[in-house]
Write a structure and sequence with these properties.
By secondary structure, the protein is an all-alpha fold. Helices cover about 80% and strands about 0% of the residues. The protein contains 10 helices and no strands. It is globular, with a radius of gyration of 22 Å. The relative contact order is 0.12.
Length: about 260
């Protein structure tokens, strides 16, 4: 093992699975061994049983679908706003100077702080939950995309102008192709953050979704269901992350490391 030395795909998969196996083993020792009361932490078998009950008896698949829809909906809205604005900020410094102070200010505001206002403005329906995800994602996306576009090597831009390219061509044929792989990685990363916002939105004033189920399970002191909901979120996030990586590698093979 040496610094920055890559590992093969089978080794990467094996090491990843080994960590999960170790995690479950420690969890089993803590619960089955009596080191932690099952009231506070359900054992793995109880968690699996409660998860089966949620899926078969309580229609948890519908809650999962609702949460996925909210994440995708709010994230897509954020991308629609952030992508063009972030590109314009990165490409044109006056636009960046105009928007960056507000965007830098807004990205530090926690999305959860807006929930009371959003409930007043939009009620407790789907619009409120989509707006929580939108607010939590859009400002991060704008600034990170602007940085990605604005950090393209200046000599490439100068070379394009020397060859007769105009401003529009520089943006479309120099800045965007060079920044596209990094922008794709930014979208992948912020999509993971969107999952934290949707659960917060579902904890308050919601009648469906994984966060709603977790709140109900907390009231019943059912830690097995709570843990199952958390694991489902992690699995969906892991699958979406792998899909994003696969698409990015297919679209931008030259950027693979």
């Amino acid at each position: 093992m040496k610094p920055l030395q890559p590992v093969s795909a089978p080794s990467r998969i094996g090491l990843g699975l080994a960590f999960f196996a170790l995690f479950v083993a420690l969890w089993s020792v803590a619960t089955f061994g009596g080191y932690v009361q099952r009231l506070f932490l359900a054992d793995p078998l109880t968690m699996v049983g409660e998860g089966y009950k949620l899926l078969v008896e309580y229609g948890f698949a519908f809650d999962i679908g609702m949460t996925i829809w909210r994440v995708i909906g709010g994230f897509v809205l954020a991308v629609i706003v952030a992508l063009p604005l972030g590109i314009m900020m990165g490409a044109y410094k006056p636009i960046e100077a105009f928007f960056e102070p507000f965007v830098s200010f807004a990205r530090y505001l926690p999305a959860s702080a807006f929930i009371p206002l959003l409930i007043l403005w939009a009620g407790i329906g789907e619009t409120q939950k989509l707006l929580v995800i939108f607010i939590g994602s859009v400002f991060q996306l704008i600034l990170m995309i602007a940085v990605a576009v604005g950090s393209i090597r200046r000599d490439l831009v100068d070379a394009a102008y020397t060859l007769g390219a105009g401003d529009r061509s520089v943006v479309l044929r120099v800045l965007l192709p060079n920044a596209a792989p990094e922008i794709a990685e930014i979208l992948r990363m912020v999509l993971g953050w969107a999952w934290t916002y949707v659960i917060v939105a579902e904890l308050i004033g919601s009648s469906s979704g994984i966060g709603h189920m977790i709140t109900d399970s907390q009231a019943l002191l059912n830690t097995g269901q709570i843990i199952f909901g958390i694991i489902v979120i992690g699995l969906i996030g892991l699958i979406s992350d792998f899909l994003f990586k696969a698409v990015n590698q297919r679209l931008f093979p030259w950027a693979a490391k």
